[in-house]
Design a protein that fits this description.
One of its GO terms (molecular function) is oxidoreductase activity. This protein has 10 helices and 7 strands. The protein is of the alpha/beta class. The termini are far apart.
Length: about 250
């Protein structure tokens, strides 16, 4: 599918991977709807790229439904949906003080996994109502997993579970939506230079980079965005999780 002229929805588009994706899709000629909880930063990116921003809590289905409806009414029905919104909270299942992390687990699942599911559901429904392109496609959904779904570290039980769910639903969702011409893909990024990483001390960042084989650096959000555009344009990519990780495998801690 050629990106130019189509509508794209990007969650988490106010910063990090999402902002880079929104900018890249706009540069390729898409009309971009940015869904983010940070309304001010989302509006800034939207003004920069000529898109439309909607304050959205992806962990609440009603909020997602309203946001997708607003983007559809303003820009048109989406043919591209990219879910980058997420949180990376960490805690042991049973802490050293004996405390449990059940609330953190539930919140992480709600935002990361349920949020991706809600966005996929509402975006795909809009895509299915569109006429197919010459290729037979109606749209593509791209969700963001993480390398932690396969090699999660100590303290990442909640995060890994949420990203594992995103990876696991990729193939069955692709199979389910195949008759309607909607593709479903997932990207599992490794260690990227995002706002979460920027807040760490340089010594910590250096230790993280030491585990990355090649290129021996953090990933750039623009490299994630580049893969998004390649997935959009390559119709034979479907039902697959792609690790974007410079061959890194996370150590246990």
């Amino acid at each position: 599918m050629q990106i130019s002229g189509h509508v794209a929805i990007v969650t988490g588009g106010a910063s990090g991977l999402g902002a880079a994706t929104a900018r890249r899709l706009a540069a390729e000629g898409a009309k971009v709807g940015i869904l983010d909880f940070d309304a001010d930063r989302a509006a800034e990116v939207a003004r920069e790229i000529g898109g439309h921003a909607v304050k959205t809590d992806v962990g609440l289905e009603a909020s997602v439904a309203e946001a997708v409806a607003e983007v559809t009414a303003t820009l048109g029905a989406p043919r591209i949906s990219v879910s980058c919104a997420g949180i990376g909270l960490a805690a042991r299942v049973v802490g050293r003080d004996g405390g449990l992390s059940s609330e953190l687990f539930e919140k992480t699942i709600r935002v990361n996994l349920m949020g991706s599911y809600y966005v996929m559901s509402h975006a795909a429904r809009e895509m299915m109502a569109l006429d197919p392109l010459e290729s037979g496609e109606r749209g593509v959904v791209i969700n963001t997993a993480s390398v932690a779904y396969e090699d999660g570290q100590i303290g990442q039980v909640a995060y890994s579970a949420s990203k594992g769910g995103i990876a696991a639903m990729c193939l069955p969702a692709a199979r389910e939506m195949a008759k309607q011409g909607v593709r479903v893909m997932a990207i599992a990024p490794g260690l990227f230079n995002t706002p979460m990483m920027e807040g760490l001390p340089q010594e910590t960042v250096d230790g993280i980079v030491a585990n990355i084989p090649f290129p021996h650096r953090l990933g750039l959000p623009e490299e994630y965005a580049q893969l998004v555009t390649q997935i959009c344009e390559s119709a034979y990519l479907n039902g697959t999780v792609i690790r974007l990780d410079a061959a890194v495998r996370l150590p246990q801690r």
